[in-house]
Amino acid sequence: MQAEVADPGAANAALQAGFNFTPADLRANQQGRITERQERRMREQHQDTIRISRGFFIFFMIIGYLGSGLAALTEGLSLIEMWRWISFGFLCLYGFVWTVIFFDRRQLERTLRDGDLVETRGPLRLVMRQHKTPSYYFYVGAHEFSIDHATYTRLKRGNLDGQQALVYYTKRWRWVLSAAIEA
Question: Which positions, given as ranges, span the membrane (predicted)?
Answer without folding.
Answer: 52-73, 85-103
